[in-house]
Design a protein that fits this description.
The protein is α/β, with parallel strands linked by helices. It is built from nine helices and eight strands.
Length: 222
């Protein structure tokens, strides 16, 4: 029997990571944070002094990532790279900017593709990213494109970073999100867009619980 996959795509700051974790927990499914893999590639490149225009070296880094995903006792994420806790580092805006750059490189995407598909295991998978429903899991049972206004996404991201002790200005975040949206939607390789059969969910003004319940209701329709 095929393994059910719930694909949740959307722009930066739309809340897809939080929703994916909650849905996976509710269903008892595995979780794939595909964006973390690109962030880890960018972070690894910076730590090793690899330039973002060195496509061959970046692809090699992507293939060789020593990554471990874990959780704290409260259910929050914990991510290890080369046995170093990089949970906070990969969520910094500078790392996100790097991830957006390396994600536009075909050889990097190819290096990470099979690793992402390897997460498809019983009893099921919730995969969040930017091309889960269009490219990585085109046969996903449920495809959701989660979005929100740029202003709302900037406010959410600002609060998230402040809660983690990371100081950043709201204005700078708004500019970064607009720039990242432009790069993600205009890139030639797997651009950010809803799958043709995706359900669009605008989370502006909605609580995390409301969005999670909507997704679970859609899954229950299977």
């Amino acid at each position: 029997m095929s393994v059910p996959v719930i694909a949740i795509d959307g722009p930066s700051g739309s809340g897809k990571g939080t929703i994916a974790r909650r849905v996976a927990e509710a269903l008892g499914y595995h979780l794939l944070d595909s964006g973390a893999l690109y962030r880890l590639t960018a972070l690894s490149a910076r730590k090793q002094g690899v330039q973002f225009d060195d496509e061959a070296s970046l692809a090699e880094l992507a293939r060789a990532l020593d990554v471990r995903f874990d959780s704290n006792s409260d259910g929050s994420e914990r991510i290890w790279l080369d046995n170093e806790d990089v949970t906070l580092e990969i969520r910094r805006e500078s790392t996100g900017e790097g991830a957006s750059m390396v994600a536009s490189i075909q050889s990097v995407r190819e290096a990470l593709l099979e690793r992402q598909r390897g997460f498809e295991q019983a009893p099921g998978l919730v995969a969040d990213g930017r091309d889960m429903g269009t490219h990585v899991f085109p046969s996903a049972a449920v495809k959701i494109f989660l979005t929100a206004s740029a202003e709302e996404r900037a406010r959410r991201r600002h609060k998230q970073l402040k809660d983690k002790g990371i100081d950043v200005s709201l204005a700078a975040l708004s500019r970064d999100i607009e720039d990242r949206d432009r790069r993600d939607t205009e890139r030639s390789v797997a651009p950010l867009r809803p799958a043709e059969d995706a359900r669009i969910l605008d989370s502006s003004g909605l609580s995390i619980e409301a969005v999670t319940n909507t997704v679970l209701d859609w899954v229950a329709e299977l």
